[in-house]
Structures are given as C-alpha cells and as structure tokens.
Design goal:
Spore Coat Polysaccharide Biosynthesis Protein SpsA, Chain A; 9 strands; globular
C-alpha cells in the first residue's frame, strides 16, 4: 500500500497489523486461504478501504517462522517491521516509529472481517479531540473481530519506555484500559443494527476459519471486498447455522 496524501494539518494515521505464524491455537492462521486469498490479504484489502488511514505497516517478529510473512509483505510492497516475538508493545512502537506515525490504529492480524467503516468512525471520533483512546474492544457491542483502537504514538511510546509488566508488554494497549484515571477513554458503541457482541468474527480456531470462509463464499460474489458488518449479520440471521459453527469457541482472558 502506498501512502495517501493526508489532508492539510491532519495528523498522520497509520494502522499497524500485529501478526505472526506461530499462534498457539491455529499456527499459520494469518496466511491460511480464505476464498482464494490469504487471511492477511483479506484484512489488508479491507483496511485499504478505510478513508482515514494514511498507511499500513505489518509488525511481525524476527522468528525465522515469520520469514514467510516478511516475504509476503515485500511481494505486495507493504511496509514491514520485524521485532520481538514476546514484547509486542516494543514491536508496535518501533514499527510505528519507522512509519513516522502520529496516530496509531492498532490491528490484530486475526481480524479478516474487520469493517473499514468502523475504523473510520473510530479515527474520526479521535480526531475530534478530548480523548486519549477511542476503542470498541473493552466494552464489546460489535461482533468480536470488528475491532477498532486508536491512540497517539507518543502515549504508547511513553508506556513502552516506562512499563515492564509482562502482560502490558504482550498486550499493546492494555495499560490504557487498566488506568482510566490517567487516560480519557471513549468506548465506541455500535448502532442497534450492528450490536452483536456474542458473535465471533475473528480467526483463532479452525471453526472460526470455517465461518469466515463461508461468509466470504456467500458475500464476496455479491459485494466484492466491500461488504460490512451489517451484511454479515444479515447473512447470519438468514442462515443461523453459520453462526453455530464457532459459537462454542471462547477467547482467553488477558489477566
């Protein structure tokens, strides 16, 4: 993705995708095929549709297992930073520093159904001011995997420079949420028609992959890459057996 010309005086907004091949539950998931393209390619295509993002960077690791991710990024001319496998906070900060970022949009590589309109909503709200973080992950209203987290580079850089807690180093934005007395957090809420926090649209388990493939197989022929969370929820309402595919899967607690 080539950088877009940012509007005059608007801070530079960069999305960093955290991805690695050695995921514990589903190794190699980010490059698994989804209707003819790797899951990570699906995510990048959707992010590219977000009007408020100026650039995208892949933040992967120096583990040799992630050579394939670095090669993939190079082949598609996507900026890539390789850093610590365990210290994800440092990896993201250095990736964003490399990009000259002012505003960070934190993206996990396991969200190939992410909705770019939700990202734009989060960035737009952040740029209005009076907040340090805009997020829809701490208080879920959208389906899981329709994530949006926005904060300033310098705020995350300061956390990286001062905090040593292992959970904070692993979970990039955790410190913000654990210190609401310090950071003004705006919890973005979904409109009623997109409220479905019980629905899993992220990629952690083989069952998640089955659902994501089914969604693309049904919606891409009608909408191309442009379908959003409302289209997905309409599909699941029409075919409830699809939502049952991964309904038993659960996310592990951070703490």
């Amino acid at each position: 993705m080539t950088d877009r010309a940012a509007p005059h005086l608007r801070p530079r907004v960069v999305a960093s995708i955290e991805a690695r091949m050695s995921a514990s539950r589903l190794p190699g998931k980010v490059l698994m095929d989804v209707a003819g393209a790797p899951a990570l390619e699906r995510l990048v295509r959707r992010l590219t549709r977000a009007e408020c993002i100026d650039a995208i960077v892949l933040a992967t690791t120096t583990n040799p297992a992630d050579d394939t991710l670095a090669d993939w990024a190079e082949a598609r001319h996507l900026p890539c930073y390789r850093g610590s496998e365990d210290d994800v906070l440092d990896r993201v900060v250095e990736a964003q520093r490399m990009m000259g970022s002012e505003i960070i949009v934190e993206i996990c590589g396991d969200t190939p159904l992410l909705d770019p309109r939700v990202i734009d909503t989060a960035v737009t709200r952040f740029l209005k001011g009076d907040v340090d973080v805009v997020s829809n992950t701490a208080k879920l209203t959208w389906p899981q995997g329709i994530d949006a987290q926005v904060f300033r580079f310098h705020a995350l850089e300061k956390i990286a420079q001062t905090q040593t807690d292992a959970a904070v180093r692993e979970h990039v934005s955790l410190y913000f949420y654990e210190h609401p007395e310090t950071y003004r957090i705006h919890h973005l809420a979904a409109p009623a028609e997109e409220t479905a926090p019980e629905v899993r649209l992220q990629l952690d388990y083989a069952e998640d992959l089955d659902l994501i493939r089914a969604v693309y197989a049904r919606l891409e022929p009608r909408f191309g890459d442009g379908f959003g969370v409302r289209d997905i929820l309409d599909l699941l309402a029409a075919e409830p057996e699809l939502a049952a595919i991964n309904a038993h899967c659960r996310e592990k607690a951070v703490r």
